[in-house]
Amino acid sequence: MKERLLNGELTLDEVLLEAIRRSLPAARRLMLMGLKRVDRRLRDERDKARYESRGSAPREVETRFGTVRLRRRRYWDRQEQRIVFLLDEWLERTGEEEAGEAG
Fold it and tell me: How confident is the model over 14-31, as a mean pLDDT?
């Protein structure tokens, strides 16, 4: 790529786009690490009398960097009598991009 740039075969815009393309996997890994950290914090700080842990389930989150796949914790909400995902609720409150269930 460097030779092609020096030979005038690539524009700086093409170089920038290639740099962005190459950085996306690392950005997705960082996003995954952040989501896992939030999920752990929500687990540790939840109202344990209200939310009973019920394992985990897959999720796909659409981010600016592409799709991030993770497993997030599932809880039984004793007050509402339903299954909830505290990470999903956190994502909705913080205005993150749309997310869909993993298949």
Answer: 91
Domain that holds residue 84: 2-101
Instruction: Return the sign of the alpha-carbon dihedral for residues 103, 26, 94, 16.
Output: negative
Q: Are 72 and 85 in contact (CB under 8 A)?
A: yes
- pTM of the complete model: 0.75
Residue 14, SS3?
Answer: helix
53/74 Cα distance (integer angstroms): 6
The pLDDT tens digits for 46-66 are 999 999 999 999 999 888 899
Number of domains composing the chain: 1
Cβ within 8 Å of residue 81, ≥6 positions away: none
Question: In angstroms, rounded to a whole number, what is the distance separating the alpha carbons of residues 28 and 66?
Answer: 7
Q: Exposed, middle or buried, 75 (CB in 10 Å: 0-12/13-18/19+)?
A: buried
* Residues 31 and 22: beta-carbon distance below 8 Å: no
